[in-house]
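Check this.
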Amino acid sequence: MSDAARAPLALHVFSSFAVGGAQARFAAIANGLGQRWRHMIVAMDGDMACREKLDPGLDVGFPEIGLRKGAVLANIRAIRGALRGWQPDVLVTANFGTIEWAMANSHIFGGHLVRHVHMEDGFGPDERDRQIARRIWLRRLFLRRAAIIVPSQNLLRIARLEWRLPAANVHYVPNGIDLVRFHPAPRNWQNPPVIGTVAALRAEKNVGRLVRAFALLRQPARLLVTGDGPEIPTLRALAAERGIADRVTFAGHNPCPETAYRGSDIFALSSDTEQMPLSVLEAMASGLPIAASDVGDVRAMVSKDNAPHIVARDDAALAEALDRLLADPATACRLGALNRLRAEELFDQETMFAAHEALWRGTR
């Protein structure tokens, strides 16, 4: 029997396996652990775009399961049947969209079938300012026996105090970054300098705020938007409306995002809701100064000297933060160097790999 055949099997369930932060993090972990694990990945919407990030040498399957929206009891029966048939060593679910899998694996619906690890990354636009009560109760009821991973101190507090999950079951594991792949480029301030962002272009990322802030800048600059998503037509129209279309580049999806950071002088994040965004870690590791909306753990992630550039979720506030960086390239470069040092100190991906694997194995 080969080493791969003897390796434990992890079943990973995502609402979508489109390219996004949670999916990219999983791909990095799976690639880092290599042949020590076998994997099955279920995408509830059928989108498997992030499989491009998986090492082709991994033992990975992509099973399908026919679930119907709203058919909760039928879905739970189907899920329990799949868990019995596939016999994974651990079920790893991601965010509230996979709650039916937690329900199916619970004592309430016939008993616990497999060790369960659940990852929570935060909230969508419908919970930007206030959580939905029904979701709080479902998490409280069906995640009590799971090992919960949260990447931010903000979510750690929410899981313990608001969802009232057992403190011993909730584990703070910061996101990690590949410090070799994401590294500073020789920093020659461009003329005009380039403000970059890397994001899935969805409503909650609010790249529209960045476009509007860019239109308010007093300093000359260009804007590079890397990413794809349903907001692209709206963003293009907004840039044209504000008279800045000739200074904004929509580069689309980039399978090598490190090149986008190396082509930027400043990184901007304009999201309405985040917890511990990978894009900020990637920008830090790439040695960039950061101007961002004050969401999740972003202020605590960046270097102390960079923290004044983490501002309210407001167009004018973001424009002011960007203008301050543009006006003082020497300070901006110093902040970028400090962010790189902080990434090296706190956010090495090897630490993240070890923590996730220990929770999958049940040894932490």
